[in-house]
Amino acid sequence: MQQKSSTASMSQPGRRTVLDRFMWQFNQLLKIDAMNLLILVVVILIGWSIISVSIPNPARYLPSPLAVMMSSVDMLAKGLLPSYFSDTLVRLVIGSAIGLAAGIPFGLLLGLNRTVADMFHPMMNFFQSVSGIAIFPIVVIWYGNSDTTVLVVILYTSFFPIAFNVLSGVREIPIRYVNAARTLGASRYQVMKDVLFPGAMPHIATGSRLSIGFAWRAVIAGEMLAGRQGLGWMIFTGQDTDSTAEVILGMVMIGLTWIILDHYLLRPIEEDTIERWGLVQR
């Protein structure tokens, strides 16, 4: 009885100490993603500023956050930053869209026959593991330093991850489902549409997210190496002019864009798809 009364008294909010109440409220705040992000950003900016003022020649080695912000204001006033940003996004959207539109049907078609799927699986794994930057020199030989070169690299980088994931998803579908559909008179197209496509949806969602992530890296690197205007090219020209603030601004833009794209678009789509089609509950 004494132990129960002691436990009950400790559980009453009025008898908590001031420190306990403060820690409870603070922990509630920490559960909010926005608060966590704000704290992280403030800590990074403070640490960045301290390091910047502590080193010699900070304009060359590590400009302060204020200097980077002023660089962004200058590029916005000149219209350069919106132009670079839009060029990069357009390349990402076009290359990723073509890669996904070609990779998903390709993976499904390979999966129509288990023997063919098993035969192509190692080859698809090989190509999806070869970075798009690794094929960049040979693409330059074919097309020179042009927008076509960057588009081909993005297409390659986005095609194989989604095709490989779709093929892996199709191979995991129990063969009895395919046989049951064929027994009921389903054509190859119906098997692909009604059995393989729904069964591979979780892998399609995951593969799409991976493909777009790889494509985002490829478009930045492609712009650097091919000399095409965009965020990657902005970083490369900042190096040539010793404009460290411009380089850091480009890095921040690349990182923030991907965080927003992944956290608020790709990840929710992937989670909803897996929850609906993968028989997984949150």
Detailed description of the structure:
This protein is mainly α. It folds into 2 domains: 2-59, no CATH class; 65-277, MetI-like (MetI-like fold, Orthogonal Bundle), CATH 1.10.3720.10. It is 83% helix and 0% strand. The protein has 14 helices and no strands. The protein has helices at residues 2-11, 18-30, 33-54, 58-61, 65-78, 80-110, 114-129, 136-143, 147-172, 175-183, 188-199, 201-226, 231-240, 244-277. Helix 6 packs parallel to helix 9, helix 8 packs across helix 9 and helix 9 (147-172) packs antiparallel against helix 12 (201-226). The chain starts with a helix and ends in a 5-residue tail after the last helix. Residues 1-15 have low confidence and may be disordered.
